[in-house]
Amino acid sequence: MASVDYPKLFKAVEDSYARLEPFRRQRNEAIKQYVGYRYQQEGCEQEKPLGGLEQVITTYTQQLVGGQPRALVRANRPELSPTAADLEVALNWLVKKLNLYEALWEVVLNAHFGLGIAQVGMVEAEAAESWWHVLGRPAVNVIDQDDWVHDVRAKRWEHTYFMGHYYRWPFDVAEKFALFDSEARSQLKPTTGSFVARRSGIHTPETLVEPVEPQVELLDLWLPKHGLLLTLCPEQRLVLREAQWVGDRQGPYHLLYFNPVPGKLMPLTTAMTLGPLDELCDRVFRKLHEQAVAQKSVLPFRGGSDDDIRRLKEAANGDAFRCDGDLPQEVRYGGPDKVNLDFLMACVQLLSRRAGNLEQLAGLGIQATTLGQEQILQFNASLRISFMRQRVYDFVARIFRALAFYLLTDRLVQLHLIRPLPDIGMELPLVWDAERQQGDIEDYLIEVDVYSLHHRSAQAQLESILSLLNNFVGPLVPTLAQQGYQFRPERVLELISRYLGIPELHYLFEPGEPMPAQLPVAGAAQQASEMLGTEASQYRQTVPRVDVQDLVAR
Question: Are strands 215-223 and 228-233 parallel, antiparallel or unpaired?
Answer without folding.
Answer: antiparallel
